[in-house]
Amino acid sequence: MSRHHAPEEHLSDERAETLRRRLGLSRRRLLAVATGLAAAIPLARPAPAGATSREVLIPPGKRGIILYTVRDAISRDPLSTTVPSGFRRVLEALSAIGYRQVEFAGYRQHANAEGGADLETVDGARLLRRWLDDNGLRAEGNHGFIPGSWPLTAADLDRFKRALEIANILGLGHMGTGSDPTGSAYKADWDVAAEKWNELGSIACQAGIKLYTHNHDAAYAFLLDSGPLDEQGRPTRSSGIRKLEYFFRISNPRRVHFEMDIFWAHVARFKHTAYTAPDGSARTDVFDPLATVQAQEKRFPLFHAKDGDANPAVPNGYDMVPFGTGDIDYRRFFSRLRAKGYHNPMYEQDNAPGADPAQSLAYAELSYRNMATLRG
């Protein structure tokens, strides 16, 4: 894909005024933000030459954002700025942009925001639900508590059930974590992780919620599952199966689900390309994120739609950028999914916050527009 970006379009006077009001900016401040974005951030890359307009790949009701992207706004003291701050005002701003889904990344905000610092309570969840409903938003998931211990302690089980109660109040269809099932490379540890996740998934299912794990590139590295053994009796070589692919096989498909972070899956494609086979030979295998999803689409109800500019000079091979402005081919990815309307893509950008207090919300505006114009 070409690395030449399309020029930033100019906002109409009416659209600029609407954006200014909802972000709480002066006209001068909005001009500075818009000028900075125009200089630094492109709109979505144009369709290939000869392409015609086809289906909308992310329907309006499926355009979502994980609130980690705007965590600076949620955690900011609302008394310190006119830019939306705290859950209520940020949810209002995201709804005004056009988002219809959100994914939580915890339930804490600044103590001076309406409702107080900690909304991870029954009363806090009811307050959040009212703000969601008032703004026509649906919460699809949360990166929250997953017990680390196994077997489960009574305290961990109680906390997990409280998290499910809060999820039900919020109307979440899914509950999960931002971490891999285990950070280990060894088969035995993934066996234990599957046992735990199968049990937790069954508990979540009884509450009407799908349990999911969100994964980074390390989960797509190769499993150490064959000899010779090291001094601690652990395998040192691989049969060629990737860690998460093994977890797919041994976890219950009706109880354990996944959220592919498409950026990190492409990082895995860049980084995790070789392994040492049981006979000691070096083998090459390039990861295919799309094929991984296509093999079992219904286990991927959620995506993180995070974009990146290819940069082989950095360890991950990509620099994070707003959705639709990078080199990850989202047109190809979404157009080749078969379960149309099933998946919930959540825009995420880890580096959206910046010195400018309006930056993360301005990036959310830009990324929403690029989601809305993505055609297959």
TrEMBL record:
Keyword Nucleotidyltransferase (UniProt)? no
Query: Is Mitochondrion a UniProt keyword of this protein?
Result: no
Q: Which UniProt keywords apply?
A: Isomerase
- TM region positions: none
Q: Origin, by domain of life?
A: Bacteria
Q: What is this protein called?
A: Sugar phosphate isomerase/epimerase family protein
Gene Ontology MF, one:
isomerase activity
| Residues covered by the Xylose isomerase-like TIM barrel domain | 91-347
Q: Which InterPro entries match?
A: IolE/XylAMocC-like (IPR050312), TAT_signal (IPR006311), Xyl_isomerase-like_sf (IPR036237), Xyl_isomerase-like_TIM-brl (IPR013022)
State one Pfam family annotation: AP_endonuc_2
